[in-house]
């Protein structure tokens, strides 16, 4: 119930302390993001990677600090619910002129649910729905930096405008050939503008901060002409001489969604008003959920909040049930989905077959590794939830029985609200974007017949992309472990992405070996291996029999990726990584890149 009086003397001080905790978090988050510019200018790639990993931990550290303060000063866990209702109202008042109110609301939820435990989830004192609008925050007088800049060139002034756009970012490193780069950029932009008449509102808008990730910095913006908008991005990289160059022009929603994909590491970008950046990016990628945009900006807790709200809304506006996900069942993960919702839900099983020498703790550590690692566009990001509830009547009986059989410790069925409606509560669950399992994608091509040109192209594309995915993972120091087709998926854009993490290892932790020659005829005829195998030994030449049973698949694989069966390929990359090299992995296709005489 809404409190009739604000009569708890400690309520305001608790709200103030919680907002202080959030402000400290965002100040540190923004400071770390802002330092990405210096790390880029000095080409300190290892520091950039460490910062990307470390920043992920900032949120939980600040939540823990805030909880410790509230317990120390207010014995927060002993306060009655009426006090927490008043705390929320005071907190809302403190957010009226705040620049990141939506993030602060999520922080409030994180602190409150930890203190009050999950059995006390109630709308009365949580931000189940947002209380503050994020629109027009930039209109406040105290906002120092607008989210985007607008340039108004005439058509014949595009070259000068692009030069101004690029130099306004004040990178303290010279360009190799800025005028040549600009000419190439303008040629692409003119093609995108086309022969249409330039209207009075013709302009180029770019977000005020560069987007940093890995070894690149990205200008992100759009061309506006009348009602037409063309999104674009300019990747800025270093050449071997330590000078900058613009590598490509990415344009259109598909290019932008690939750049901001759920399978890539989070960007470092300095944002005073993050909601304004999200609003701008939504104008470039209207088909991309806001939750995924917040994730891409490194604001994963806010992305998680928005995802949950989207899921609740979807459940209210749909009628289909959760079911066992199509495809080959996993040995360590139980996977289910809802046909109308583009995500899959994964639970760690309680029992594993003998060949899977693992534990729940080890599996969770692998998922955490992926969360903190550079996913290079080849590993799906995951949302992790604990003690989350769904309506019982939205579950197929087969699925309930499957969970009871393989993961009983992870599920409880109860009437939480005493309203006569049971809910299914999951103690721990991972949620990922749904993809077509690669084995099913290939089988579709086989079923249609490879003599059909379209089916043959589908098969060839899948095999080539599969090899590309593994090579990108290798460049990022990741060995997939289980490389079977079923552990990879195909995205809506045809990209092959890895999503089974329980056996991944760092390349640098593996020992890549060639299978020793048989010592005698008995070894050669034996069905058992005749050589010793260490726990981290990998024999790439043995991949073939498991992956290449189909002759057409083998032909394509050997043509494009036969080196993956050679231990020397893996060992050479391991040695490069051990020498400290950070290998290039681009979030766009090779044909997008400008041809350069100096490279």
From TrEMBL:
Positions that bind ATP: 325-331, 346
Protein EC: 2.7.11.5, 3.1.3.-
Active site: 381
One Pfam family this sequence matches: AceK_regulatory
Domain annotation Isocitrate dehydrogenase kinase/phosphatase (AceK) kinase: ranges: 320-590
One GO cellular component, as annotated: cytoplasm
Catalytic reaction equation(s): L-seryl-[isocitrate dehydrogenase] + ATP = O-phospho-L-seryl-[isocitrate dehydrogenase] + ADP + H(+)
GO biological process: glucose metabolic process; glyoxylate cycle; tricarboxylic acid cycle
Subcellular locations according to the entry: Cytoplasm
Record's keyword terms, sorted: ATP-binding, Cytoplasm, Glyoxylate bypass, Hydrolase, Kinase, Nucleotide-binding, Protein phosphatase, Serine/threonine-protein kinase, Transferase, Tricarboxylic acid cycle
Residues annotated as domain Isocitrate dehydrogenase kinase/phosphatase (AceK) regulatory: 15-318
Annotated GO MF terms: [isocitrate dehydrogenase (NADP+)] kinase activity; AMP binding; ATP binding; phosphoprotein phosphatase activity; protein serine/threonine kinase activity
Principal location class: cytoplasm
Biological role stated in the UniProt entry: Bifunctional enzyme which can phosphorylate or dephosphorylate isocitrate dehydrogenase (IDH) on a specific serine residue. This is a regulatory mechanism which enables bacteria to bypass the Krebs cycle via the glyoxylate shunt in response to the source of carbon. When bacteria are grown on glucose, IDH is fully active and unphosphorylated, but when grown on acetate or ethanol, the activity of IDH declines drastically concomitant with its phosphorylation.
Family: Belongs to the AceK family.
Annotated protein name in UniProt: Isocitrate dehydrogenase kinase/phosphatase
